[in-house]
Amino acid sequence: MVSTRAVADAVSPQTLAFLRYLVGVVFLALPALALARPRYTLRDAIAVSALGVLQFGVLIVLLNYALRVLPAATCALVFSSLPLFTMALAVACKREDFSVGKLSGLLIAVAGLMLLLGYAPAQPIENQGDGSLLAYAALVGATLIGAACSIMYRPYLRRYPVLPTSALAMCASVALLAAFCWLTDQPLGPVLSAGQWAHVLFIGFSSGVGYLCLLWALARAPASRVMAFQMLGPVTAAVIELIGSRQFPSWTFVISMALVFSGLFIAQRAARRSA
């Protein structure tokens, strides 16, 4: 999110999403080609491709759009509620059992994030203009898509190897994003400075590594348990900013970190007991 914010004003959300996963799929394709290719059924290949289009294409376009309009802290906070959405959907679909302990832990972690980000209730959406209303809708939509995809991926990740499945999903999203850029007259190769290209390459590389790790974990653990660690994103960003500014952490920072980590510990412990 920090790097995306750095280039959000220089490149459209469509183009940035295309470049992000083009770099990511190149990184994944190199080791994937060296492995034996799994034999996907046509139905499973279409399903994995559709999930890739949603998670790696539509979700990122929506999130990038929200980052152009809303503060990064607001986007980080709403998107960090993804574990709550995931647990609610998993319970509703009867993929997981409801756990008071897990819900309590996630709520404690969210409270820590609110304190960390210095979040204060914003003005009513209707007073912020149509652009902000659409941005909030895009942000919530991205969060819902991430939660749904994390649940729907698991059967295919347990049936096929994770690395080629990740590459297939990203390839499908890159093809769709290229077509989307063409339809909306957005360049596939924007004019950026060397520093901005470094951000784009970092975003793509980290996306490839990060989503490979994410899908590997989803193949082995319940979705709500895995997605709970998405809450560490804003924490990591805050630590990076502290190191970059060479400042000592405040008491607010220490308390918020304690809430986030204790909440995750409670949620993971409750999830293990449930399992």
Report on this model:
It is a single chain. With 275 residues, the chain is mainly alpha-helical. Helices cover 76% and strands 0% of the residues. It has helices at residues 2-7, 13-33, 42-69, 72-79, 82-92, 100-116, 130-152, 154-159, 162-183, 194-218, 223-227, 232-245, 251-274.
Number of E-state strands: 0
Proportion of residues in extended strands? under 5%
Helix fraction, binned, reads over 70%
**What integer is the average pLDDT?**
82
Uncertain residue ranges: 120-128
Q: How do the SSEs run, as a string of H and E? A: HHHHHHHHHHHHH
Structural class: mainly alpha
Distance between the termini: 33 Å
* Radius of gyration, CA atoms, in whole angstroms: 19 Å
Q: Characterize the quaternary organization of these chains.
A: single chain
Largest sheet: none
Overall geometric form: globular
Number of helices: 13
Attribute tags:
single chain, 275 residues, mainly alpha, globular
Walk me through the topology.
Layout: H1 2-7, H2 13-33, H3 42-69, H4 72-79, H5 82-92, H6 100-116, H7 130-152, H8 154-159, H9 162-183, H10 194-218, H11 223-227, H12 232-245, H13 251-274
Write a short abstract of this structure:
The chain is mostly helical and about 280 residues long.
